[in-house]
TrEMBL record:
Protein name as annotated: HAD family hydrolase
Gene3D superfamilies: HAD superfamily/HAD-like, Putative phosphatase, domain 2
Top-level taxonomy: Bacteria, Pseudomonadati, Pseudomonadota, Gammaproteobacteria, Methylococcales
GO molecular function: phosphoglycolate phosphatase activity
Regions that span the bilayer: none
Keywords: Coiled coil
Organism: Crenothrix polyspora
Length: 255
């Protein structure tokens, strides 16, 4: 057993397959901004959203992506000019990013209040992950670093009987970038090895380009929300590339 290994895990796309719930919450929230949208989301919209999920950094963006899909924007068009399209939507709706973050959280809160079990069911953990995280805390120190609001992470962890102290969950509420969190963790664990597991390539590229984080070992989660192009680009970087089965076996080996 090796207690000198510290793990920092992204949540959505590494621990939790939240794409369906994110799509549905995004649709519900979008309906409050744009009354022309029907209350019921079509299954094909969810599948199209899943294809676009890798482009989303923070959950509130799902509101804008669902609006774009409702407007019949193609997958290719959204990928090619995403920033321009969401900027236009924000201007047309006369809302700020902060407004959307609050609306997205409020919409989730209402769903949870109405039917917590249904909301949890829409947030399954990837196969084998719950068991590994239940064991991990017995052997190593680990953290969650996410753009999700912390209360939602806590709901999901509790539902799967995963114990993690509140101070080890770094979510949207902290107003800290993932780079800032990693810097803080390195400072706290300055003699230990820190592994960061993330499915979003731009995030790992940013960490790689931060000199003060050169000691962080970077793991690219191939099972998460990334594209074939992301995988090809990641293979050219000094990352550890892992499939889910390798990730689960790796914890057994590295304990």
């Amino acid at each position: 057993m090796n207690k000198t290994l510290i793990y920092a895990l992204d949540f959505d796309g590494v621990i939790c397959d939240s794409a369906v719930e994110t799509a549905m919450t995004g649709w519900k929230a979008a309906c409050t901004l744009w009354p022309d949208m029907p209350k019921t989301i079509q299954p094909d919209m969810i599948e199209r959203f899943r294809v676009l999920r890798p482009i989303i950094e923070t959950g509130y963006e799902a509101i804008l992506v669902m609006r774009l899909l409702y407007l019949n924007e193609s997958i290719e068009a959204v990928y090619s000019s995403y920033n321009d399209k969401i900027k236009t939507l924000l201007e047309e709706a006369q809302v700020s990013v902060n407004d959307l973050k609050k609306l997205f959280g409020k919409t989730r809160d209402q769903w949870i209040a109405d039917d917590l079990a249904d909301w949890i069911n829409m947030n399954p953990l990837f196969a084998g992950v719950a068991e590994k995280l239940q064991q991990l805390g017995q052997h190593n120190t680990w953290y969650i670093i996410t753009t999700k609001q912390e209360r939602f992470v806590k709901h999901i962890l509790k539902a799967y009987a995963i114990e993690l102290a509140d101070e080890r969950i770094f979510g949207l509420d902290r107003n800290m970038s993932k780079i800032d969190v990693l810097k803080a963790l390195l400072h706290s664990h300055n003699t230990e090895t820190l592994y960061f597991v993330e499915d979003r390539l731009p995030t790992l590229i940013n960490v790689l380009g931060t000199n003060t984080l050169s000691r962080v070992k970077l793991i690219f989660a191939l099972w998460g929300y990334n594209t074939a192009e992301d995988k090809a680009l990641a293979a050219k970087q000094p990352f550890i590339l892992q499939q889910l089965e390798d990730f689960l076996a790796w914890y057994r080996l590295m304990r």
